[in-house]
Automatic annotation (TrEMBL):
PROSITE patterns hit by this protein: DPS_1 (PS00818), DPS_2 (PS00819)
Signal peptide: none
Provenance organism: Marinigracilibium pacificum
Entry similarity comment: Belongs to the Dps family.
Record domain Ferritin/DPS: where: 20-157
Protein name: DNA starvation/stationary phase protection protein
InterPro entries xrefs: DPS_DNA-bd, DPS_DNA-bd_CS, Ferritin-like, Ferritin-like_SF, Ferritin_DPS_dom
């Protein structure tokens, strides 16, 4: 076996960079997840029932993606970050504390999707350069779904 390739046949130097960026995405997802859980728990007001249900739907989806991203990092021979301190240190998404207002929570959620979508597009390019079809497929599916969700959140805000 070629010593420049990892155990699944991808170039080690390319997937090392990709793994780092997937870990950065993982950190964003973890903080985003916690924000969505907080919105689900703390939302108040006339849109309570609608938003309570929506935030639960979103955090369950994000929780699943967190596991898939961590497993992808392992698959390309990296090590997923797993501490809150690491996530807080590198996440572009910041913690949203004690948000009760539905409009504010939706705005923060939309902003989170915008950050995640931009990072995923960058990761797609890196994965293409590394011929990493597994990461391309995973992230491509996320983007298609999340673009629609972002559009719906933006429409709700109008």
């Amino acid at each position: 076996m070629n010593s420049t390739l990892n155990f699944i046949g991808l170039e080690k130097d390319k997937v090392e960079k990709l793994s780092k960026n997937l870990n950065n995405l993982l950190a964003d997802y973890q903080i985003f997840y916690q924000n969505l859980r907080g919105f689900h728990w703390n939302i108040k007001g006339e849109n309570f029932f609608e938003l309570h249900e929506k935030f639960e739907e979103l955090y369950k989806d994000i929780r699943e993606k967190i596991d898939e991203i961590a497993e992808r990092i392992l698959t390309i021979d990296g090590q997923p970050l797993h501490t809150i301190s690491d996530y807080c240190e590198i996440s572009e998404i910041k913690e949203a504390k004690n948000i009760e207002d539905g409009r504010e929570a939706v705005e923060i959620t939309l902003n989170g999707f915008q950050i995640i979508l931009a990072k995923q597009r960058s990761i797609m390019s890196q994965a293409q350069e590394a011929d990493d079809e597994g990461t391309i497929t995973l992230i491509s599916d996320y983007i298609a779904n999340q673009e629609k969700t972002a559009w719906m959140l933006k429409s709700w805000l109008r």
